[in-house]
Model the fold of this input.
Amino acid sequence: MPVKYYAHGRRDQMKVALTFDDGPNPPRTDQVIEILNSYGARGTFFVLGKWVERFPQAFERIIASGHAVGNHSHLHQTHLGDFDRAEAVIGNLLGRPTRYLRAHYFNFFTCLYSPVAMAPGMKIVDADVNPADYAKTDPQAIVQATLNHPALAGGSIIDLHDGTESDDDALRLARSLPMIQALPAIIDGLRAKGFELVSLDEMELIDPIEWQYDGRGNIASAEVRAAIAGLDGS
Done:
């Protein structure tokens, strides 16, 4: 079965989805929730199983605030598709299976050996607007990279980060601060352009893309590289 993923929703509707990766990350995730709630906007949080285990109450606050969640692997290791391990943790607190999954580093090959990722009801979600907020320290640069992104349109999925995969607590707490400072201006700017901010469960995802080996698997383990090479008979 091929891996298929979605990069956007319907282009004829002025809806955009703000998504946040690598949490939950208290208190940073709580700050994001507070901003979203103050604007009456819903977001989608692609969480790591290891952080849900460590910070279950922070995860529960995401749910209690009415936001959507998705599976973003357990450990966020480049070659490891440990979505099933993450799903056991996330689903236990959520009380149901997740509906959305995002491959860490957008390395979709990690989905191939995961029953959770390849389940018929799971939607694997990419993004068409990635401002690389994780690599920026200037909030205004994040605002401009989001609002001026050439792909921004109705149906866009915007990829931001409220946490990090790093176990370094100082980095975990610091990395998302510029994005949090930028978030109100991003929301104001999107609404000024006429967009409605929605979670993924309020957006009709269309035009699934069938993943083709694109070289990103070269940074995987030797075993996974061999398995990927076998997909096309090489």
Summary: The chain has a mean pLDDT of 92.
